[in-house]
Design goal:
Elements (H helix, E strand, L loop, with lengths): L3 H5 L1 E3 L17 H9 L14 H20 L2 E3 L9 H5 L5 E3 L6 E3 L7 H12 L5 H13 L4 H20 L3 H9 L5 H9 L6 H20 L10 H12 L21
Parallel strand pairs: 1-2
Antiparallel strand pairs: 3-4
Length: about 260
């Protein structure tokens, strides 16, 4: 039995507080959803999943909870339940997952193979109270590379590679494809990355661009740098964290790609 001191270091959020029948933010995306349906836009197909999502979610949540506790001293325990549908996913086709701001509902919109562990870690970070996208990206990465599970480490490293390629490609989809195809990744991993930037034509491309701008504005209004926090902000943060001599924590060895600068 845990003593009183240990219980004081744990925060438990009831599942009842994180699950509503309908996610409240779904109401806010009804208009763009109708537009996409009328224009004939359809979601991408699913990829073959190697590990059952329910089992993977438990492993990811434990890694995230343990990593955060190593910094804050508190184990923030939340639900590991995950939905596979939300209207947000149809309204914002570039998103692969979401966490509802009001209810804490987490939804993953499509299978992303090896990347799914990081997608879960990102959304679970939101569920635990870290609402800024850069914070969720970084916490997801650092918690997974701190894990002893190789599949979690590989997911984080693939996400980092993905974001580095997005930075190099900018807004040019053809350049991104060329970089992915010329990489030394296994074919199934290249296929995963290519599905993250699907081809589109005509009105759908214009709508996609408009929705990304809307999402970027929403991030700016909430004190974030914008949609670049997912890739440029994320990769810059990790580089600085690994190389600066003034960082208060040591970067996990499994996920460290750069040497730390020496103190004078």
């Amino acid at each position: 039995m845990r003593d009183a001191g240990q219980r004081r270091n744990e925060i438990t959020i009831s599942n009842r507080a994180t699950y509503w029948t309908v996610a409240p933010l779904d109401m806010l995306v009804a208009a763009p959803l109708v537009g996409r349906l009328l224009l004939g836009a359809t979601p991408l197909g699913r990829l073959l999943q190697r590990i059952p999502r329910r089992e993977l979610a438990v492993e990811v949540d434990w890694a995230l909870t343990r990593y955060i506790a190593g910094i804050t001293g508190q184990h923030v325990r939340t639900s590991t339940a995950v939905r596979d549908f939300s209207l947000v996913g149809l309204a914002f086709p570039f998103a692969v997952g979401a966490c509802d701001l009001l209810s804490g509902n987490v939804a993953i919109f499509r299978d992303t193979g090896m990347l799914e562990a990081h997608v879960l870690a990102h959304e679970f970070s939101h569920r635990k109270g870290y609402w800024k996208e850069l914070h969720a990206q970084v916490l997801g990465y650092l918690s997974l590379v701190s894990s002893d599970e190789l599949v979690l480490q590989q997911s984080a490293l693939l996400e980092r590679l993905h974001r580095n390629l997005r930075v190099l490609a900018g807004d040019d989809r053809a350049t991104f494809e060329r970089l992915v195809r010329s990489s030394a990744l296994r074919p199934e991993l290249r296929a995963v990355l290519l599905t993250l930037w699907p081809s589109s034509t005509g009105i759908e491309r214009q709508l996609h661009t408009g929705l990304r701008r809307l999402y970027h504005l929403r991030m700016r209004l909430t004190g974030q740098a914008g949609i670049s926090d997912y890739d440029l902000g994320f990769t810059n943060f990790l580089y600085t964290f690994e190389t600066t001599a003034s960082a208060r924590q040591i970067a996990p060895p499994a996920g460290t790609l750069h040497r730390r600068s020496r103190r004078d």
